[in-house]
Amino acid sequence: MVLTLAFSSVTAVWSLSRAGDVQVSADSAALAGANVVSSYTTAATVVDASVASLGFAGLLTTGVGLVGLLIPPVSAAASEVVDTGVRILDARNRFAASASEGLQKLESSLPYLVGANAARLCAAQSTGSLSYSGVALAVPRDSASEFPAIEGAKIDTEGLSDVADDLEEVADELEKASEATAAAKERAWIADCGRDGMNMQERATRLSGLSASENPDYASSITWDPIVGLRRARAYYRWRAEHEQAEGSSAEARADSAARRAFYRYASKQMDRATIEERDGRVISTVPLLPKNTSEVRRTSLYTDPVWQSSEEPGGTTLHYGADCPGITGPLGSLISLATLAGGGARECEVCHFDVGDLGKTPAASTSIDNGFEYHLREFTLALDEYVECRNRELALEREARDQADVAGDAFEEALSVLGSKRPRIAPPGRYGCLSLVVSGEVVSPEELDTAFSEAATLDRRGAISAAVLASEAETEQNNVLSSFFATIEERSSSDGVVGLVGSVMDLWGLLLVSYGDLSQGLSDMADDLLGSLDGMGAGPIASWLRDRLGDAVHALDLEPVDLRLKKPVLTDTSNVIARSGMASLGDAQGLLRSIPLGTTDPGALLQAVGYQVGDYIVSAEFTIAEIPLPAGGSIPLTIRLRDVLGTSDGR
Q1: Same structural domain for residues 170 and 142?
Q2: Which string of DSSP letters, residue by residue, matches 125-168?
Q3: Domain assignment present for 338
Q4: Residues 136, 208 within the same domain
Q5: Measured between alpha carbons, how far is 52 from 48 in angstroms, rounded to an integer?
Q6: Does residue 637 contact residue 498 with C-beta atoms inside 8 Å?
Q7: The pairing of beta strand 347-348 with beta strand 433-440
Q8: Which residue from 137, 120, 127 is spatially nearest to 21, judged by alpha carbons?
Q9: What is the pLDDT of residue 149?
Q10: What DSSP line would sit under 400-422, residue for residue?
Q11: Structural contact between residues 57 and 154, judged by C-beta atoms closer than 8 angstroms
Q12: How far is the C-alpha of 210 from the C-alpha of 243, rounded, in Å?
């Protein structure tokens, strides 16, 4: 009795073990199917992260280049940076196009691949007389994935290039105009106070008693302003007019002094009326050229204004330098002009002989040689006129450059809106889980259990169902997968793609790639670093404006975070998956199990047997989702190996 009970118990244990094995196989098949979905989800995330980060790397590079075009010290390098950025964006467009096609093809094959992986595992578990046939069904069968950054999101790189070319052209013209303005300004500064030796400041010091505040000195044309020269001339002529004294008591000396005083008063009035100002986008200068000789004096009010004393002499009305002229013998007459004398309306005094020539020789002497203030004032005025012309052209080009920078900003923001469209929704077939159906054929207990104490046991055909879903690994750092992926890419890259203003493009891409989970913050930080670095390179108002606009556009981009946690398959209650399948046939699990042909390992036949249509699917052993472009040129294929899933035997 003891032996009978012992052998019967062993037979019962064997029977229960064989019966339970089919459930283990079903559990393994469900996990195997879900593992395919997990692998696809990881691959799709990597592809989308690569496309997005490569696009943003290219756009940031382009943006830095656009701003740099407006900064003369780095404009040549900036042109190369723009070209590099556009090439990256072109590569991103090609990558996105191939990735879109690859992901769609791979995702459409998932139902078959899920079933194939489960069928392969069941076949591998068959040993000797014990055989398993089974398949896993992806629930649901259809995809709901969305990849806005990949599908149809092409950046207009040709438009960006055209905008950059136009901006570079106007920036080059503006740089030349700025150089011409600076050169003219420097010439005016040299005449005013920049020349070693004689200049307006030095002559005013020697020839007048102006204070240092009225007669300042500037060491550089950069800190000097043209208004300084005008103010100096005003102060100088005011002082000279107020302090003019005759250099003797003779009539000739007093006549010369009267001529000088008249000239200084005239010059003082001219300078007081003159202005140098920038108004309504234009520089206006009314600083006149003072007359330099008798001929030019005749063309001024010095010649026509009635300011000279006359007297009524026996020979007629006579012009004198002043009322104290010793040549006056008759009664004083009215004030008359030098033009009256020249026109015959008055006669020249026989004592002082004062006429327009006396007035003309005052500026003639001091304008023709460099020891005169007027010599340097004329040089200043001519350079000032040239400066005004150059500056007005520069201002016009600044307006044109600002308009073109605005166009560049629009193009940048348009490209940014393409890259910053909706975040991806990875919802492939099998997103709600995978349901496995596994059967095992009839099996007889080993001969050792067929004894006088216990008969051999025979187990009929058995079946089991199971289900698995994907669960996030909470402890996984979000950057691990992408960091490892980028490390592999970087190792296989032949160059780091170094360019001047952004350092290494590969590094920039890598930083954005590993920031993909919170790309909005990572992108903002990188924009601040790159655009902020231009501040120390001499960015002017237009470059600073464009820099701020691009930076603000990046900061305003509100990208939703992406969950980068790894997904791993876990078993779940089959009812959870069946309820979300939308397939009424799954309610009859026993019927589906009976429909599975025992001994069949062909996934297509197994799926067809349970009424699960998969459509087209990948039949190659390896499948390239896309070619990953490298910033320095070349590409690396992103390949999914399907050899194990498809049951090949090379062990890869």
Answers
A1: no
A2: H-BTTB-EEEEEEEESSS---B-TTTSS----HHHHHHHHHHHH
A3: no
A4: no
A5: 6
A6: no
A7: unpaired
A8: 127
A9: 59
A10: HHHHHHHHHHHHHHHHHHHHTSP
A11: no
A12: 11
- The Cα 44–Cα 412 span in angstroms is 27
Give the pair of three-digit tokens for residue 208. 């007048």
Tracing tokens 């990881």 back to the chain, one arrives at: 42
CA distance 9 to 242: 135
What is the crossing angle of helices 110-125 and 75-108, to 10°? Answer: 60
Strands 458-459 and 622-629: unpaired
* 393, part of any domain: yes
CA distance 274 to 268: 10
Cβ pair 492, 635 in contact under 8 A: no
Buried b (16+ CB within 10 A) or exposed e, 113-143: bbbbbbbbbbbebbeeeebbbbbbbbbbbeb
Supply the pLDDT for residue 583.
73
Taking CA atoms, 291 is separated from 73, 255, 275, in Å, by: 43, 19, 19
**407 shares its domain with 441:** no
Dihedral (Cα; 495, 499, 504, 505), 10-degree rounding = -80
Same domain, 433 and 400: no
Choose one of 405, 420, 435: the last residue of a domain: 420
Token digits of residue 94? 């090609």
Q: Using DSSP, state whether 540 is helix, strand or coil.
A: coil
| pLDDT for res 499 | 52
Q: What is the pLDDT of residue 10?
A: 45
Whether 628 is in a domain gets the answer no
Cα-based angle 552, 557, 559 (whole degrees, multiple of 5): 155
Does residue 347 form part of some domain? no
Beta-strand relationship, 132-139 and 433-440? antiparallel
- Whether the Cβ atoms of residue 310 and residue 320 lie closer than 8 Å to each other: yes
- Residues 403 and 546 both lie in one domain: no
- Determine the Cα–Cα distance for residues 372 and 384; give it in Å rounded to an integer: 19
Q: Say yes or no: 231 and 134 in one domain.
A: no
The amino acid at residue 42 is T
Question: Position of tokens 């002989």?
Answer: 353
| pLDDT by 10-residue block (mean), the chain, 652 residues | 50 49 88 90 84 88 93 89 90 84 85 90 77 88 77 81 95 95 98 96 97 96 97 98 93 96 97 95 96 96 96 95 95 96 94 95 93 97 98 96 96 89 81 90 53 52 88 62 68 54 70 78 85 82 93 86 81 88 72 81 82 73 72 70 51 30
Q: pTM of the prediction?
A: 0.78
pLDDT at 189: 98
Q: Token pair for residue 159?
A: 């438009």
Length of the chain: 652
Mapped onto helix, strand or coil, the DSSP state of residue 451 is strand
Which tokens belong to 498? 């170094």
Query: Domain span at residue 197?
Result: 160-285+360-420
Contacts of 282-286 with C-beta under 8 Å, sequence gap 24+, read: 282/392, 282/395, 283/387, 283/388, 283/391, 283/392, 283/395, 284/388, 285/226, 285/384, 285/385, 285/388
Here the tokens at position 5 are 């009970």
Strands 310-313 and 316-319: antiparallel
> Rg of the chain's alpha carbons, rounded to an integer?
47
- Please, are residues 251 and 261 in contact by the beta-carbon 8 Å criterion? no
Residue 414 CB: number of other CB atoms within 10 A?
13
- CB atoms < 10 A from the CB of 563, how many? 10
